[in-house]
Design goal:
alpha/beta, Glutaredoxin, 34% helix, globular
Length: 105
């Protein structure tokens, strides 16, 4: 299951992680965000031992949203070693996320 991150705990959960982290920036009112939510859940189960998957509500976390320049949602950022390694904007099929994730493992 994906973990909720906030302005307060983002650095501890994402930046300081020793595993690759997928951050799903979303909002409740966003239809495409709801479309990829089940994909994020599947990935969190399939890669649970190797990857941390988190969700960040853009409406409730303006500091992190601004820091990473999130203007369109869903935006999924792939972090490795505390730095952005890849990015996906918009709803895409699961294999797009897997293809971006595999090089980080």
């Amino acid at each position: 299951m994906a973990i909720e991150v906030t302005d307060t705990n983002f650095d501890d959960v994402v930046i300081k992680s020793d595993k690759p982290v997928i951050v799903d920036f979303w909002a409740e009112w966003c239809g495409p965000c709801r479309m990829i939510a089940p994909i994020m859940e599947e990935l969190s189960k399939e890669f649970s031992d190797r990857v941390v998957i988190v969700k960040c509500d853009v409406d409730n976390n303006p500091q992190v949203t601004a820091k990473y320049g999130i203007r369109n949602i869903p935006t999924v950022l792939f972090f490795k070693g505390g730095k952005i390694a890849d990015k996906q904007v918009g709803a895409v099929p699961k294999n797009n996320f897997v293809n971006k994730l595999k090089p980080l493992l």
